[in-house]
Amino acid sequence: MIRFMLAIIRRDLLLVTRQPAEMINPLVFFLLVIAMFPLGISPEASLLSQTAAGVIWVAAMLATLLSLELLFKLDHDDGSLEQLLLAPYPSWSLVIAKVFVHWLVSGLPLILISPLIATMLFLPSEAVPTLMLSLLLGTPTLSLLGAIGAALVTGVRGGGMLLTLLILPLYVPVIIFGASSVAAAAQGMPVDGYMALLAAMFVFALMITPWAAGSALKL
Amino acid sequence: MSFIPSAMSELMCTSDLACERDLRVLYSGLSLSVKAGELWHVKGCNGAGKTTLLRQLAGLHPVDIGKVLYPQTSIKIIYIGHKLGLKEQLTADENLSWLVGLDGSSTQLQRYAALERAGLKGYEENTVAQLSAGQKRRVALARLHLCKADIWLLDEPFTSLDHQGIEDEQDWLNQHTLAGGAVLMTSHQEVSLPQVNILDLSQYAGLSSSSPSSGGGSST
Question: What ipTM was reported for this prediction?
Answer without folding.
Answer: 0.81
